From TrEMBL:
GO terms for cellular component: centriole; centrosome; ciliary basal body. This is Rotatin N-terminal domain-containing protein. PANTHER family: ROTATIN. One of its GO terms (biological process) is centriole replication.
C-alpha cells in the first residue's frame, strides 16, 4: 500500500478510536489490535502518530470503557520504544496514568506501572543524552 494511502487509512482508524458510538470504537480497537498482532503494521510504522497516543488515553474518558486491558497492552507495547515514551510523556500520560490508577483493578494497575516505568526511564535517558550533547 502506498505510504499516502496507509497514512490516510491509519488516520481514519485512529479517529474512529474516539468515535461517540461505542461499537465503532470497539471495531477500530479490534482492527488496530489485529493489525499489530498479525504484523500488518509494525510498532515502528505507527510511532509517529502522536494522535494515536491521545486517542488511546481518551479511551478511558468514556463512561465504563470496555477492553481497557487491550488498550493498556497496546500502550505498554508502544511505550517500550523511546520515541513513543517521549510522545506519551509530552502529552501528559504520566499525570493521566497516575490519576487513572485509582480506578483500576490490581492487574490493570500493574500494566499502568509498567507503562509509567517505560515512559519515565526512556524519557530520562533521552533527557540525559540531550543534556550531554
Amino acid at each position: 500500500m502506498p505510504e499516502d494511502d496507509f497514512d490516510k487509512s491509519f488516520s481514519t482508524l485512529i479517529s474512529k478510536l474516539g468515535h461517540p458510538v461505542e461499537e465503532i470504537r470497539l471495531r477500530a480497537l479490534e482492527s488496530l489490535q489485529a493489525k499489530l498482532d498479525l504484523k500488518l503494521v509494525s510498532d515502528i510504522d505507527i510511532l509517529q502518530y502522536k494522535y494515536l497516543y491521545i486517542k488511546l488515553l481518551e479511551w478511558f474518558n468514556f463512561p465504563s470503557p470496555p477492553k481497557r486491558d487491550v488498550v493498556l497492552d497496546i500502550i505498554l507495547k508502544l511505550s517500550k520504544n523511546e520515541s513513543a515514551a517521549y510522545n506519551l510523556h509530552s502529552i501528559g500520560a504520566v499525570e493521566f496514568f497516575n490519576a487513572l490508577r485509582i480506578d483500576l483493578t490490581p492487574e490493570l494497575e500493574r500494566r499502568v506501572d509498567e507503562i509509567l516505568e517505560n515512559i519515565l526511564s526512556k524519557h530520562f535517558v533521552t533527557q540525559s543524552v540531550s543534556n550531554i550533547s
